[in-house]
Structure formats: C-alpha cells, structure tokens
Write a structure and sequence with these properties.
Length: 112
C-alpha cells in the first residue's frame, strides 16, 4: 500500500509528488496541528513528528509563501520550477514581492 496524504479532500500519491510539494503540504499540515494546539511549542511538535528541528523551521517557512506561489507549485504541471534546495537553503523574505524577486518571478501587486 502506498502512502497517501489528504489535501483539500483529495488523496494525492505522496511518492509521486515533488520534494517541494511534499514539504509544502507537510508545512500546512503542521501549521494546522499547531493552530489546533497553540500552546504546543514548535520543538515539541517537531519531536512528535520526528522531524529535525532545523528542517521543521525551514518547512514552516514555506507556509509563508505568497498564495500565488503556493498555487503555482501545486499546479499540475507546475507553473514554474524551482528547487527545494533553493527554498530551504535561504531564509525566505516575509514580503511576498521580495519572495517573488528572490525566486526570479515578476512582481505582483498584492494590495487589496
């Protein structure tokens, strides 16, 4: 039996996803667990999930990606490709336009 994860009610074949997609999904799953128990520390959550603390922090940084970047990563086929190594080897900017600049994408107006 292959490993499956549920995202937005759809079963995805985990082993067929790119490493970036797996990390992104995992980040949102961890965020959901953390929001359900906000008194739990990140260290405790990373230990419960058997994830190295450093990797946990990097994965959690992915949940701050601009919404259109998340959507583009999850599209099939992906709208653009960048490596998980690039995303996890640097601290991503909090500002969404700075994220786009870092990833070499066009600036987008995020103002309401």
């Amino acid at each position: 039996m292959s490993l499956h994860k549920v995202v937005d009610g759809e079963k995805l074949k985990w082993n067929r996803l790119t490493p970036l997609r797996r990390r992104l999904i995992l980040g949102f799953q961890l965020l959901d667990k953390w929001e359900k128990n906000p008194l739990k520390s990140g260290l405790t959550l990373s230990e419960e999930e058997s994830i190295d603390r450093s990797l946990f922090l990097k994965i959690m940084g992915l949940v701050n990606l601009a919404p259109d970047i998340v959507e583009a990563v999850m599209e099939e086929p992906p709208a653009f490709d960048f490596s998980i190594k690039k995303l996890l080897s640097h601290r991503l900017p909090d500002d969404w336009n700075e994220q786009r600049k870092f990833l070499g994408l066009r600036k987008k107006n995020y103002a309401g």
